[in-house]
């Protein structure tokens, strides 16, 4: 047990934190869950979370961290098409409404095409104010990972380094992190034959989006992970990023587990203290 570890792979919006803070937050939530579901004496495994958000920042030749890669860049035609398709997948019932107020769209992003602002306004009208803004940030970062230069390759390198450390039996991947780990498996860049990972836990995963599946897997085949890896997908009711549903309809040999994260359905710490996550960790590490 002492030599076994869990590696977390974070999602978007982590530019103002670091590996130590992420690991502390994740470990605290996992500890709460394991203690609640299995008793206070349950051994808690080592857990690390490698911070990769810096790969989304432009290097400016200064000592500072730089800006997000899309902070002041226009949305080109390819990205606009991806955004429109993805937002429609996430909230298909939202009308393409005309924006009614600046507060709906005030993001510090000066180059939003009118079709995108209309979709965001429609999402706000359907799901609540500022939902469109939050989803746009999510979709843009997913797009940058999938299609922007070598960002995706650099992120995979960072995450693979952690996942291939000896004793890494479990990876818990949240949001965009689930796309990164799946991509590593699918590309053959993470081979279970040469590492210790045997359990892949996804939480709040956007792998259900057709736009994402087309990029990392193709739509003609279901999602799958290598033999010998157990895949547990945890999703919350109301989590728009996970489409509020599991992956069994588009993936092979995945076990879906539905939870309720209350008023913060996509929040990672809400996922980490749930029984399906605790049970999967305990089983994988034979605690």
What does the overall shape look like?
Answer: globular
Overall SS class: alpha/beta
What is the C-alpha radius of gyration, as a whole number of Å?
Answer: 19 Å
Q: Can you give the helix content as a percent range? A: 40-55%
Count of helices? 10
How far from one another are the termini? 7 Å
CATH architecture descriptor of the largest domain: 3-Layer(aba) Sandwich
Give the SSE string: EHEHHHHHEHEHEEHH
Largest sheet: 6 strands, parallel
- The largest beta-sheet arranges its strands as 2-1-3-4-5-6
CATH topology of the largest domain: Rossmann fold
Structural domain tally: 2
**Proportion in β-strands:** 5-15%
Instruction: Give the overall pLDDT as a whole number.
Output: 89
CATH class category label of the largest domain = Alpha Beta
Number of strands: 6
């Amino acid at each position: 047990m002492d030599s076994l570890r869990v590696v977390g792979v974070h999602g978007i919006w982590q530019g103002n934190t670091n590996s130590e803070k992420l690991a502390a937050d994740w470990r605290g939530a996992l500890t709460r869950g394991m203690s609640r579901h299995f008793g206070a004496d349950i051994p808690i495994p080592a857990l690390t979370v490698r911070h990769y958000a810096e790969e989304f920042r432009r290097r400016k030749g200064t000592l500072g961290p730089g800006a997000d890669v899309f902070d002041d860049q226009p949305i080109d035609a390819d990205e606009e098409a991806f955004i429109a398709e993805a937002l429609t997948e996430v909230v298909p019932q939202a009308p393409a409404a005309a924006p009614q107020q600046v507060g709906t769209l005030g993001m510090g992003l000066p180059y939003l095409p009118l079709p995108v602002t209309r979709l965001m306004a429609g999402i706000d009208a359907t799901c609540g104010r500022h939902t469109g803004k939050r989803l746009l940030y999510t979709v843009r970062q997913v797009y940058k990972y999938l299609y922007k230069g070598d960002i995706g390759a650099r992120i995979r390198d960072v995450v693979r380094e952690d996942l291939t450390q000896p004793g890494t039996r479990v990876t818990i991947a949240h949001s965009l992190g689930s796309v990164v780990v799946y991509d590593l498996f699918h590309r053959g860049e993470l081979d279970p034959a040469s590492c210790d990972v045997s359990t892949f836990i996804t939480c709040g995963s956007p792998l259900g989006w057709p736009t994402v599946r087309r990029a990392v897997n193709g739509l003609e085949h279901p999602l799958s992970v290598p033999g010998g890896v157990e895949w547990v997908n945890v999703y919350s009711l109301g989590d728009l990023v996970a489409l509020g549903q599991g992956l069994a309809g588009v993936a092979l040999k995945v076990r879906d587990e539905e939870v309720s994260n209350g008023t913060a359905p996509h929040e990672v710490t809400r996922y980490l203290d749930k029984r399906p996550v605790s049970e999967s960790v305990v089983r994988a590490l034979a605690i």
